[in-house]
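Purpose: get a first structural picture of the assembly so the mutagenesis plan has something to point at.
Setup: two entries, given in the order below. No constraints added.
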Amino acid sequence: MTESASSKPGSRHRILVAAATMLGENPAARLSVRSVAARAGVSTGSLRHHFPTQRVLEDAVLAGIYDLVAPDDPIHDTDTPARDRLVGCLRQILAPTGTGRQARAALRQTYETLIATEPTEETRQGYLALERTMQHRVEHWLAVLADEGALPHGDNAQRAKFLLTVVNGLTLERALPSAESVLVSENAALFAAVDAILGG
Amino acid sequence: MTESASSKPGSRHRILVAAATMLGENPAARLSVRSVAARAGVSTGSLRHHFPTQRVLEDAVLAGIYDLVAPDDPIHDTDTPARDRLVGCLRQILAPTGTGRQARAALRQTYETLIATEPTEETRQGYLALERTMQHRVEHWLAVLADEGALPHGDNAQRAKFLLTVVNGLTLERALPSAESVLVSENAALFAAVDAILGG
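Result (C-alpha cells, whole complex):
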C-alpha cells in the first residue's frame, strides 16, 4: 500500500506496533479504532485510512505475529510434494491436541470456556481472534502453494475454512472412542481434504 | 447368502430378530455370540456361520433397523442432482444438533458421557455402535449414488468416514462462537466435502 498525502509516513507501522503491544498486554483485548489510534499517536482518520475496519486491523496484527513466531514453516520445504507438505502443516495444528486422555483434556478446556455456558463477549472475541489466526495460517500455506503453481488460484479463505472444519472434526474424534487407531483414519481424512483442495 | 447344509433354514432371520430385540431392550448392549445364539435358539456354530464376528452381526442388525425407520430416504429422489441430495442427507445428520444454545446442549451430552472422564467399556461400545449406524447410513447413500452412476465405484467406507469427519467438525463449530452465520460457511463446507467425494 502506498502512503497517501493525508497520512504521515510510518503511521501504518506505528499502528501495527501499538496494536500488537496492546494484544501482548491482553490477548483477549478488542482493538478499538479509538484506543489503538491513541496508543499509536495517530488520528482515527489515519488509522481508518490504513485499516478500514477493526477486523482488517486485527488480521494484519495477527498475521504479523504469526510470521514472527514461525519463520521456518515447513510449507517452504519444496523437496517434499505439495500435498504432503500441506498435510504436514495441518498435522502441526492437530499435534497439540494429543490423543486419549490428553485429547479429552484439550476438549475440556474448549468445552468449559466456550460451550458449557454462553461465552462472555470478551471470551467470544478472544476465540474469534484465535480462529482468525488459524485461518490466516492456513491461508498463508495455500498462498505459498498457489505461488508455486501447486494449487489453482481460487478462494483461499473458503478453502482454509474447509480444511479447518476437517481439523475440528478430527480434534473431536481424537477425544471420542474409536474402533481403530485414530491416526490411521485421520491420515486418510487429511489426504482426502488436501486432495479436494489441490484438485480444484 | 445361500443357506448351507449345516445351518437350519431361517436361522439367519431368527438371529437378526433376536439381536434387534436385545438391542431394543438395551441400546448399549454388547451382542455377544453366546447370548444372541441362546436368545435365537440356534447353536453358536450356526451364528458364527452367518455372522463370523460380533461386528458383522451388529452391523447387520443396525442396517436392518435403519432400513425400517427411514424407508423414504431423500437419497432416492432422482429429480434432484446427486450432489444436492447428498448434501441434503448430511444436513439430516446435522439438523438435530440445532444452533446456539441447542448446539451447546447437544455437545454437552456428548462431552459428559464420553469425554469428561474415560468412558466405561459399555458406554464405549454403545457409542461405537451408534457411530457404525451413522457410517452405514452414509455408505448406504453412497451406494445408491454409485448404482446410479453419479459416483465412481471406490472405497465407500473411507468416503463415508471422511464425510462424517466433516459433519463432526461442523457439529463442533455449531457449538462454538462464529463470526458469520454458521449456516453460510456450513453450506460451503458441505458442498466442498461432497464435491470431493463425487469428483473422485
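DSSP finds nine helices and no strands in chain B.
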